[in-house]
């Protein structure tokens, strides 16, 4: 890995030097190390003051990506693989941040955690979010468990929705349409009326889609798997006074569509209905040198799947799963003196699930598997504190979190994160952090569950630098990481019923690095990146397996946006996804196969026709690359989306 990194860093470094010679006089159009972020420290801090590299997807980037889904957009970020993002519309996707399994990445909406208590690993399906509702996204890579709890082992994706910013109401309408008979309509009303902020977003998406499963029969008779989404979000905030603010948000998404029977197999009447309901209320007190936030949220996910017995051996399948999570949290931020800030808080999380699963066919009969809500539940209380010290060029975060889990008792996690900020443009940092992650309710209580599972304990190491080569114009960053997880949970085969079960292996060891170069001037916004990750599982017998299935060792990409005219922009996105492994199942036996690497190129055009009207077009997979993300499932060929966005007051 060291030789690979040296070659790549040298290449990026030489390119950076070349660019710096031409960019010394570029205007200050984009902030870099002076950018203020919230996610890394749970309080507003400049990137120069924290020992992390936080990726920001800006509102402008999101506006230029309205022809994409949220998973497709996140799949362009260095270090993130959104496996299945380009499968048939609506098919579930898996987010792998730095190669970690999906349940190790915490997803936040406006700072509120969202999970699926009924899911296999508790992860949240980001197909639930319509991209037009999102203002910007902050991505923290590396352990965030001290400040965010047990699900933030590999990092945090904080989705910040659109909110009122200025007095007066502004309306918006957006229409898009394109390949696979996909049409989307959205409307918004955002603004402030005196002391009340209002943001309402409505969205409707319909797509006839294409056959999700790969047809190897050559008969071409697989049906198209459609997707339909109805989404709404409401954000309100009320200024009771200049120092006391109430806020509330509600997000609802109802997704319906068709599914294949499985890999390589279509199904004529396999459908799903998924409802995502998230609501939260909060209050913020602004103090002389800090603030206190109190939040309460409820997150409910309902997944219903029905397969009628007209084909595939008379298969009749009914699945009805509901997951419920209640979160309560108080967060206190305060500047103790000019050298020391504190972030301290307490949180309580209660999770439960009810599940019904029936599977039968002409050759197989079995009673339904039922989990009652009262039988599958747990809770966790935690209290945490992080101190942020700053003196001259030296910065340090030192934090700890006490967790009390209803099943696993007391657990403690920590973060040690020193950094140096040199010459007002070069940051070097290192991190040692631990994380505790309990098994999901499904892993404990389902028909494949194991109530004797131990929680995973992870120690993470990170080191890197962030170099602003030309102030506010050209930057270069690199991070090395290593994750060691004890008692890693995996899915193992058994000789008898239920033939598979969740178990604890000895350990999981992952390591890798990311390097990224960014350039901005008046007309050009460009970036290039490379990411590498590898990992091995050691099971309870000591056998080792390279188990990062569907996760490439190597990814690289480049993005460029160019203002051809003041009113006309062109953008190109390129991503190389290296070889991955996947599991093939034949006669109840699994074998490891290799999925071939591929290249994708996407094109975006946008024209500001009037002061209030923008028209845009996306041509995705320009080269019409044939590739596979999941064995037995199709991906999108060359496809397009056209749209118009109109704003009015």
Explain the layout of strands and helices:
Blueprint (H helix, E strand, L loop, with lengths): L1 H22 L12 E2 L7 E2 L7 E4 L1 H5 L6 H5 L5 E4 L10 E4 L7 E5 L2 E3 L19 E8 L3 H4 L6 E7 L6 E11 L3 E12 L2 E15 L14 E17 L2 E15 L11 E18 L2 E18 L8 E22 L2 E21 L8 E3 L5 E15 L2 E12 L3 E14 L3 E12 L3 H5 L10 E15 L3 E13 L2 E5 L6 E5 L2 E14 L3 E15 L5 E2 L8 E12 L2 E10 L2 E7 L2 E7 L2 E11 L4 E8 L18 E10 L1
Characteristics of this structure?
649 residues, single chain, 5 helices
Short description:
The protein is mainly beta and 649 residues long.
Distance between the termini: 55 Å
Query: What coarse outline follows from CA principal-axis ratios?
Result: globular
Tally of separate helices = 5
Outline the biggest β-sheet.
22 strands, antiparallel, barrel
Number of strands: 37
Rounded average pLDDT: 91
Helix and strand composition category? mainly beta
Which regions have little confidence, pLDDT < 50, spanning 5+ residues? Answer: 16-31
Share in β-strands: over 45%
Radius of gyration: 24 Å
> What share of the residues lie within helices?
under 10%
């Amino acid at each position: 890995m060291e030789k690979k990194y040296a070659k790549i860093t040298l290449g990026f470094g030489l390119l950076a030097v070349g660019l710096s010679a031409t960019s010394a006089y570029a205007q200050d159009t984009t902030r870099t190390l002076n950018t203020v972020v919230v996610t890394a420290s749970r309080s507003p801090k400049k990137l120069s003051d924290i020992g992390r590299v936080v990726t920001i997807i800006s509102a402008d980037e999101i506006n230029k990506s309205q022809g994409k889904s949220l998973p497709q957009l996140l799949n362009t970020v260095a270090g993130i693989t959104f496996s299945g993002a380009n499968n048939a519309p609506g098919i579930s996707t898996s987010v792998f941040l730095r190669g970690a399994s999906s349940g190790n990445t915490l997803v936040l909406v406006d700072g509120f955690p969202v999970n699926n208590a009924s899911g296999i690993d508790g992860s949240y399906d980001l197909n639930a979010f319509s991209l037009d509702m999102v203002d910007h996204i902050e991505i923290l890579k590396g352990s965030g468990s001290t400040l965010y709890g047990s699900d933030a082992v590999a990092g945090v994706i904080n989705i910040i929705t659109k909110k009122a910013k200025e007095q007066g109401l502004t309306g918006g309408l957006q229409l898009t349409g394109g390949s696979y008979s996909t049409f989307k309509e959205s409307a918004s009303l955002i603004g402030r009326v005196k002391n009340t902020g209002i943001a309402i977003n409505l969205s409707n998406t319909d797509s006839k889609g294409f056959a999700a499963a790969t047809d190897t029969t050559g008969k071409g008779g697989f049906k198209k798997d459609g997707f339909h989404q109805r989404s709404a979000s409401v954000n309100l905030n009320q200024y009771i006074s200049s120092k006391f603010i109430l806020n509330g948000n509600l997000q609802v998404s109802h997704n319906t569509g068709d599914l294949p029977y499985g890999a390589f197999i279509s199904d004529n009447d396999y459908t799903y209905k998924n409802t995502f309901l998230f609501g939260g209320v909060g209050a913020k007190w602004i103090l002389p040198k800090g603030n206190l936030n109190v939040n309460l949220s409820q997150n409910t996910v309902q997944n219903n799947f029905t397969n009628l017995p007209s084909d595939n051996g008379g298969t009749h399948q009914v699945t009805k799963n509901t997951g419920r999570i209640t979160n309560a949290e108080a967060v206190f931020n305060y500047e103790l003196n000019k050298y020391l800030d504190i972030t301290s808080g307490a949180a309580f999380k209660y999770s439960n699930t009810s599940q019904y699963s029936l599977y039968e066919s002409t050759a197989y009969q079995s009673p339904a598997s039922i989990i009652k809500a009262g039988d599958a539940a747990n809770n966790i209380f935690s209290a945490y504190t992080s101190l942020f010290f700053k003196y001259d060029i030296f910065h340090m975060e030192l934090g700890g979190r006490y967790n009390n889990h209803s099943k696993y008792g007391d657990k403690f996690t920590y973060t040690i994160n020193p950094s140096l900020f040199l010459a007002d443009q070069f940051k070097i940092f290192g991190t040692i952090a631990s994380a505790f992650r309990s098994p999901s309710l499904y892993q404990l209580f389902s028909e494949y569950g194991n109530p004797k599972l131990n929680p995973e304990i992870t120690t993470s190491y990170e080191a890197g630098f962030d170099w602003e080569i030309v102030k506010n114009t050209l930057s270069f960053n690199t991070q090395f990481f290593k994750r060691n997880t004890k008692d890693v949970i995996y899915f193992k085969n058994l000789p008898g019923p239920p033939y598979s079960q969740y178990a604890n292996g000895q350990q999981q060891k992952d390591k890798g690095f990311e390097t990224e170069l960014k350039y901005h001037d008046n007309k050009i916004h460009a970036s290039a990146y490379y990411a590498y990750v590898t990992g091995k599982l050691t099971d309870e017998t000591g056998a080792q397996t390279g188990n990062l299935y569907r996760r490439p060792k190597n990814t690289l990409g480049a993005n460029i946006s160019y203002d051809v005219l003041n009113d006309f922009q062109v953008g190109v996105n390129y991503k190389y996804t290296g070889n991955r492994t996947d599991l093939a199942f034949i006669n109840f036996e699994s074998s490891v196969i290799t999925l071939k690497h591929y290249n994708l190129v996407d094109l975006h055009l946008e024209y500001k026709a009037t002061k209030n009207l923008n028209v845009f077009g996306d041509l995705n997979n320009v080269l019409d690359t044939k590739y596979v993300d999941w064995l037995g499932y199709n991906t999108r060929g060359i496809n397009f989306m056209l749209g118009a966005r109109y704003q009015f007051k």
